Amino acid sequence: MMEPLSSAVTICPVCRQKIRSTAEHCPNCGAERHFGPRLIESGICAFAGMVILAAISRLLMPMSLWTIIFAVVGLCAGFLFSHNRFGGDRWLGR
């Protein structure tokens, strides 16, 4: 089998085997390149933001419309946080 050019070869960050630099999947370990947050990461961060800000609102004042507004703001903030935190290119192993 022919070896690819050295400029076209990179190392898989999961299993440390040679793969092409344009590969989306590692043929050795099955890891895949992923862009942005996965659905579960977005959901967890959005839910955590909603719960945390709603809890802070409940500590500061009794249950009111402000608690719901704080929960919605927390939901949006958690979603945006997940896109900021997991927004890059990364390799996820199986």
What distinguishing features does this structure have?
single chain, 94 residues, alpha+beta, two-stranded antiparallel sheet
Structure report:
By secondary structure, this protein is an alpha+beta fold. 46% of the residues lie in helices and 15% in strands. The chain is built from two helices and four strands. The protein has a two-stranded antiparallel ribbon. Strands 3-4 form a two-stranded antiparallel ribbon. The model has no long low-confidence stretch (mean pLDDT 88).
DSSP strand tally: 4
Largest sheet: 2 strands, antiparallel
Report strand %.
Answer: 5-15%
Q: What is the alpha-carbon Rg in Å?
A: 21 Å
Structural class: alpha+beta
- The percentage helix is 40-55%
Strand-and-helix sequence, N→C?
A: EEEHHE
Q: What is the molecular shape?
A: rod-shaped
> What's the helix count?
2
**Arrangement of strands in the largest sheet:** 1-2
List unreliable stretches of 5+ residues. Answer: none
- Straight-line distance between termini: 27 Å
Summarize the structure.
The chain has helices at residues 39-60, 65-85, and strands at 9-11, 18-20, 32-35, 89-92.
What is this structure's SSE topology?
Layout: E1 9-11, E2 18-20, E3 32-35, H1 39-60, H2 65-85, E4 89-92
Helix pairs in contact: 1-2
